[in-house]
Amino acid sequence: MVRGDRGYTMVFLLVGMTVMAVLIAAVLPLASAEAQRDKEKELIFRGLQYAEGIRNFRRRYGRHPNSLREMYDVRPRTLRKLWKDPITDSNDWGLITSTTGAPAQGQPVTGPGGVPPGGTGLTPRPTATPTPAPTSPFGGSPGFGGAPQTGPVTGVYSKSKKRSFRIFEGRDVYADWRFTEASLLGTALPAGTAGPGVPTTPSRPGTNTE
Hints:
Elements: H1 3-61, H2 68-73, E1 94-97, E2 153-157, E3 163-168, E4 171-173, E5 178-180
Antiparallel strand pairs: 1-2, 2-5, 3-4
């Protein structure tokens, strides 16, 4: 091969590598955004699983569960699995309780009539079962889930402060997505989706702001 041919080969190789780098740079954000959307769908699915478990627990036992783990440990159980938060990939869910509620951005802890935001307004019937000592959301030893328990659990939410692609119940920050019994009202399973209760809400245009 003559020297001129070697020069052309090197130029073609550099051009090819540059084109590949540009294509990879263009595809990576799209792949990342699609993966994040999948996590959002999973967050809704898991959050509604907890909401359904809480509703079934209240109907069956006449009170709200004292921890997420209690729904799994009781027999018959009302939760088939202790789900992780797919956004933070941890067990550290935020807990909405019947005593303190869960403050949303720019909102007071309690709403009209003293009902916690996202709560049901239902008063649990008295029970002989004592409220466990402060522990993790899953009811295990301190540190397993990270957050202390503050009262009977009425719902869960992700602790991630990131903005979402999907708009869920008018909110675009994961920490503002509240999964309670109220979330189960009017939610239906769209055709072709996996998992119950994934609402057909619009997605945010453009790139996710994290």
